[in-house]
Structure formats: structure tokens, C-alpha cells
Design goal:
It is a single chain. The protein is α/β, with parallel strands linked by helices. The protein folds into two domains: 8-60, no CATH class; 78-135, Ribosomal Protein L15, Chain: K, domain 2. Helices cover 21% and strands 14% of the residues. It has helices spanning 8-11, 48-55, 57-60, 93-96, 120-128; strands at 78-80, 90-92, 100-102, 112-115, 117-118, 132-135. It starts with 7 loop residues before the first helix and ends with a strand.
């Protein structure tokens, strides 16, 4: 009977060093103790004086300031003029769930549209077909 063997990577999940012993033994940077400014913390005795001289202690070590929470962008639901195929002439697209009317295609009727925002091309096409747009 065959036994499914878990892969090595999965078996080592949660272990700090994945079976390589000390942290420095398998970091892929030769014998230089890491890349860049790695190891320049509390135990980086040879690096710390130069860092303090160059940056100052308060400017390099520790956390500074705060990260501003990023504004969550709301996805705008759009509809094109050519996609308007409603039986009624009065259409409230805001109630249906759309945010913007764009001007691709041709309207089959002169609709009276209520929507939050619209493009200039969409307004031209709706008015040319004998309808109107109201922004609400």
C-alpha cells in the first residue's frame, strides 16, 4: 500500500529554521551575516557605531510615526448607453445599483434617466434620442 508523503516544506511549517540549524547557516548570503543592513541591531557591535554616527540613534532604531490607513476605494458600477433596454422610458439607475452612465453604444429609446454621474457623450446620445438625464 502506498503512503502519501508530505513534502518537506510542509513538514517544516512552524519551525524557525526549516532544518538548517542556526539561522545564519542557510540564509543564502555566504558568510557575511545577511544582506544589506541585516544584523545591525543589538548584536551588531561592529556596525552599530557607524550607524549611530551616520543616522543618530533615534533616527535609525525603533519605529517612528504611524502608517495612515489607506482609503478603501469603492468600485464604481458603470453602465453604457447601449445597454439600456428597459420597457419604461423613466429609468432610475441609482435605485438599480449603478453609479455612472457611459456613452458606448446607441440608445434604442429616448430614456429619462436618473443617475449620480454621467459622461458628456452619454448625455449627448440620450438627448439626441429624445430623452433627458438628471444627476442625483
Amino acid at each position: 500500500m502506498t503512503v502519501n508523503k508530505r513534502k518537506r516544506l510542509v513538514r517544516f511549517r512552524g519551525s524557525k529554521t526549516h532544518g538548517w540549524g542556526s539561522m545564519k547557516k542557510h540564509r543564502g548570503a555566504g558568510n557575511r551575516g545577511g544582506r544589506g543592513m541585516a544584523g545591525s541591531g543589538k548584536r551588531g557591535d561592529q556596525k552599530k557605531p557607524t550607524i549611530i554616527k551616520e543616522f543618530g540613534y533615534k533616527n535609525y532604531f525603533g519605529r517612528h510615526g504611524f502608517k495612515r490607513p489607506q482609503k478603501i476605494l469603492k468600485e464604481i458600477r458603470v453602465i453604457n448607453v447601449g445597454d439600456l433596454n428597459y420597457e419604461k422610458k423613466d429609468v432610475n439607475l441609482t435605485e438599480i445599483g449603478y453609479d455612472k452612465l457611459l456613452g458606448k453604444g446607441k440608445p434604442d429609446k429616448g430614456y429619462n434617466v436618473i443617475i449620480k454621474s454621467f459622461s458628456t457623450l452619454a448625455k449627448e446620445k440620450i438627448e439626441k434620442a429624445g430623452g433627458s438625464i438628471v444627476a442625483k
